[in-house]
Amino acid sequence: AQIVGTRGMDVNNEYHPEPRVAAIVASHQKPEFLVNAKETGKIWMVDYTDLKNLKTTQIDTAKFLHDGGFDSTRRYFLTAANASDKIVVVDTKTSKLEAIVDVGKTPHPGRGANFKHPKFGPVWATSGLGDERIDIIGTDPAKNEQHAWKVVQTLKGQGGGSLFIKTHPKSTNLWVDTALNPDPKISQSVAVFDVRDLSKPPQVIDIAACANLKDDGAKRVVQP
User: Where are the domains of the chain?
Assistant: First the structure.
């Protein structure tokens, strides 16, 4: 094992004494870890094949990196720079920055949600903490280059305070929680969109009511 400090210069060439590591994910393309050094806006590509002669590549992106996940091909890593209101896209095959996409207020995708849009092809979606906006980003530069790394559609969720957005390859449902919303009716329910027709309003399911919880405490519904 080896301990490596993240302190150093950020993307604005200002020194930060103790940047936090907000995410660590393994590349599906080669023996590397992607490490989000949050406050610096730098993603470290760490080659772990030789720990005694450690090789790292630092990619300048946007400050306040947080969580994220892969597109459906597992080549591209999409991660939130949440206080910058951006999604960063890294090509893990080339270990280079692919794009930076402007999105809604304080995106918080978890791993995000991949599905096939009826008009724009393969996409990845994120919700956010700061507002009700759900951003859908095209992720297919090979066959849908004109839509790749652009917000192709926005949906209106129940409100801000969303932590996670989820779907499944065998499902037509897109689930969006709002666990940190100040309104109890919103924080204890989830909105479910139909990915076959995103023009339809979502179905809202009051999960806390379905659970028949009797206590008076906050019933914040979150999906892992």
Answer: 1-102, 109-223
